[in-house]
Amino acid sequence: MKILLIEDNETLANGISRKLKEIGYLIDVFHDGEDGLYSLETAIYDLLILDLGLPNIDGIDIIKKLRTSQKNLPILVISARDKLDQRILGLDTGADDYLCKPFELDEVIARVHALLRRSKNQISNIINYNDLSFNTQTLILTKNSELIELSKRELKIFEFLLQNQNAIVSKDNIVDHITTIDDEFNPTAVETYISRLRKKLGDSINIKTVRGLGYMMY
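Above: the chain sequence. Below: its structure as tokens.
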């Protein structure tokens, strides 16, 4: 899963980013409200972690703009604005959760896990597909209880297709989901990864190539 973090305190942003990467999330980080908002409008994310006191565009304004277009994107506010009226304003504007600074990084992780579970309407982290079982938190894929070895990129693509079953996803959407802004990745490589998934998973997976549009898992 891919998370956008907009936080102007670089030390704090680096700490949160490092912790989330350690447990398998992809993270884009911006320290400016305007840059973060642009990324929200041009890329696909599973969750937003947002500070309110940002340069150029305030976090509250970002929430307002976001809720007019991406109503279901989970938003976790992390802010030094700890007054009750500020917390109420953040939640009323459209944030899903509000965490006051200072905080422990483990609490951020717990809030992230809770929001992602809620957004996917999953009681557990397990998604079953044909004879496959995929754990979205540990990124472990099994077939009839036997572990299947896939590369990190293959797992990310499989997860994205799995979470968008019966919908066409473009190469660009796949690239946005499996990379961060710092990665160098050729979109044509998506074809190679899809081919590897088909070969490794065989009859357990149904991926249709939709010419000119992308791929669909059904």
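The chain has a mean pLDDT of 90.
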